[in-house]
Amino acid sequence: MPSGKLMSVQGAILPGAFDQHGRPIICFPARHHGSLMEHFNSQDLVHVVQYFMVITRSSQKKNGFAFLADLTTAGLPAIHLIVETLQLVEIRTPRSVGCFYIVRPDNKADCKQLAKLLGVKTAKKGPQAKGLWDKCTIVSDVGELQNHIDPSQLTSDLGGYLTYDHQTWVQFRRVIEVFSKDTETVLERVPAVIEQLQTLTHCKVDGSIEEAEQTADNISQQCESVLRTLQLQAVYDRCKQILQLMRHPGRDQVF
């Protein structure tokens, strides 16, 4: 996950919505356009967008993503940053921009500049981005978005009724990613643990009954020690806890 600062500013969000073609929607919320220029450059915003792309299921992103920006009062600096970000995303991951829904700016000069940005290559040397113009769906106001995206897939600021809390989503992702990392660590340790346990099975038990019992006790203690290093129980308990919270989301605001 990108740094806490980048995620908390909400320059871009993945609200769990889809357009009418089933493409996951990544939004650039209008209420945070001011923060874009203060906290982000295009590389930062690309980093956040690509994170959203990575965590999305392969089956959901086979036709690319739908990007959505209400540029009604955005101002030229924010417009430039958003367009440049999508151009860079398309360079790094071709065909990832399936569609770019735009609520056009009120300012006519900004409209003209937007059209120019969407059709102009951004780099004079090296890899060059094709214009995004052919991927754009431009509407005159927020209400017109519903011709392309169901209101159930739009947040209230875009005229819909999708409920989305970004800070809670970020906290949830952190919980899941920590658990996922711990699980991967356990799986990485498993081969070595199996080898250690197999070695213990070859221990010879000789001598008197008392000596045999002592050897068996030592082997048992070593087995327990080896299994403790795996930390399987801790991960299992955490898994049960997360599942319980997901079944009863009212018990924790993150779930």
Protein topology:
Layout: H1 4-9, E1 25-28, H2 33-39, H3 42-55, E2 65-70, H4 76-92, E3 97-103, H5 108-119, E4 136-139, H6 166-200, H7 209-230, H8 232-247
Helix pairs in contact: 3-4, 4-5, 6-7, 6-8
Describe the protein's architecture and organization.
The longest helix is centred in the last third of the chain and has 35 residues, at 166-200. The protein contains eight helices and four strands; from the N terminus they run αβααβαβαβααα. With 255 residues, the chain is of the alpha/beta class. The two termini are 18 Å apart. Helix 4 (76-92) runs parallel beside helix 5, helix 6 packs antiparallel against helix 7 (209-230) and helix 6 runs antiparallel to helix 8. The protein has a four-stranded parallel beta sheet, covered by helices on one side. Mean pLDDT is 85; it is low at 125-129. The chain has helices at 4-9, 33-39, 42-55, 76-92, 108-119, 166-200, 209-230, 232-247, and strands at residues 25-28, 65-70, 97-103, 136-139.
